[in-house]
Write a structure and sequence with these properties.
Layout lengths: L1 E5 L2 E6 L6 E6 L7 H34 L6 H5 L13 H29 L15 H31 L13 H37 L9 H9 L8
Antiparallel strand pairs: 1-2, 2-3
Helix pairs in contact: 1-3, 1-4, 3-5, 4-5
C-alpha cells in the first residue's frame, strides 16, 4: 500500500487489486455531526407540517364564519364540545385562531412526523435525505387544495340540505332544522380538509421515497481508476486516415 500526501489530501494506491485503484481522502479535524443535523431536520419538518396545518385551520374557520356562525355556538353546544366561550360574530378572528389551531395542529403533527420519517430515516437504497425547505412548496399545495376542495364540497352540501329542509326532512335531532344546512356545510368542509390532508401526506411520502431513491443512485461516483486512465493515455494511436 502506497500513501502519498498532497497538502490536506491523502492518496493511497493498493497493488493487491487487479487494477490499481487510487483513493483520495480529505484529512479534517472536525467530525460531521450527522445525528445532530438529522434530529434538527426532523424537528423542522414536523414544525413545517404543524405550521401549514394551523394556517389551513385558521383560514378554513374564517370562511366558515361567513357561512354558519352557529356552527361554533348552537352546533357545538348541542354536541357538547363548546370549549371556548367566544362570539364568532363579534370576534371572528379570535374564534378562527382558537378553533382553527385546536382542530388542526394535531393533524400537522401526525402528518409531519410521517413525512419526516420518510424523508430522514436511513435506507440502504436511498441515502440522500430530503430537507424541510424542499417540503414547503408541496405542503403549501396540499393546504390550498384542501381549502378549495372543502369550499366546493361545502357549497354543494349546503344546497342539498337547504332543499331537504324545505321538503320537511331533518338529519340531526339535536341541531335545529333552520341551522342544519349551514351546520352540515361546515362539518363536511372540515371532513374534506381531513381527507385531503391524509391523501396529500400519503402522496408526498411516496414522492419523497422516489426522489430519495432516484437522486441517490448517482450520488456517489465511482473511484478513479488510474491504471485504466494511464493505459488509455499511453496506448498507441490508431493509424491516421490517408
Amino acid at each position: 500500500m502506497l500513501h502519498l500526501r498532497l497538502g490536506k489530501y491523502y492518496m493511497s494506491i493498493s497493488p493487491y487489486t487487479p487494477h490499481q485503484t487510487a483513493r483520495f481522502t480529505e484529512q479534517t479535524s472536525e467530525k460531521p455531526s450527522l445525528n445532530k443535523d438529522s434530529n434538527w431536520e426532523w424537528l423542522k419538518i414536523i414544525g413545517t407540517g404543524v405550521t401549514t396545518s394551523v394556517i389551513y385551520g385558521i383560514a378554513n374557520d374564517l370562511l366558515q364564519i361567513n357561512v354558519c356562525p352557529e356552527f361554533w355556538t348552537v352546533g357545538h353546544i348541542y354536541e357538547n364540545i363548546n370549549f371556548f366561550e367566544i362570539d364568532p360574530v363579534r370576534q371572528p378572528i379570535l374564534n378562527a385562531v382558537v378553533w382553527g389551531t385546536t382542530a388542526s395542529w394535531w393533524v400537522g403533527a401526525i402528518g409531519g412526523a410521517a413525512i419526516a420519517a420518510f424523508s430522514q430515516m436511513p435506507l440502504p437504497c436511498a441515502k440522500r435525505k430530503v430537507k424541510a425547505q424542499e417540503l414547503v412548496e408541496p405542503l403549501a399545495v396540499i393546504t390550498c387544495t384542501g381549502l378549495v376542495a372543502g369550499h366546493i364540497v361545502s357549497r354543494i352540501v349546503k344546497d342539498v340540505y337547504t332543499k331537504s329542509v324545505k321538503a320537511g326532512l331533518s338529519f340531526h335531532n339535536q341541531v335545529p332544522p333552520n341551522i342544519q344546512p349551514g351546520w352540515f356545510s361546515c362539518a363536511y368542509r372540515d371532513l374534506t380538509g381531513y381527507y385531503v390532508a391524509a391523501a396529500g401526506v400519503g402522496i408526498l411520502c411516496t414522492a419523497v421515497l422516489l426522489k430519495r431513491y432516484f437522486t441517490s443512485a448517482h450520488k456517489n461516483p465511482p473511484l478513479v481508476n488510474f491504471s485504466a486512465t494511464l493505459n488509455s493515455l499511453t496506448a498507441s494511436p490508431s493509424a491516421a486516415p490517408v
